[in-house]
Design brief:
The protein is built from one helix and no strands. The chain is an all-alpha fold. The longest helix has 16 residues. The chain starts with a helix and ends in a 36-residue tail after the last helix. The relative contact order is 0.21.
């Protein structure tokens, strides 16, 4: 998935659920593997932004 595809999916989800438009051009978009976003000390997931599922 490209950054642009992720931005479009996230933007559509925010628009659908929160009725707010998101400017995807002026945003920092990162793609990360959720399995790697776990706190080593506690085993708890680390939340960074809005998760997007395909």
């Amino acid at each position: 998935m490209t950054r642009q595809e992720a931005a479009q999916i996230a933007s559509a989800a925010v628009r659908q659920y929160f009725h707010v438009d998101v400017d995807t051009i002026d945003r920092d978009i990162t793609l990360e593997d959720p399995a790697k976003l776990v706190e080593t000390a506690t085993g708890e997931p680390i939340f960074r932004g809005v998760p997007v599922q395909r």
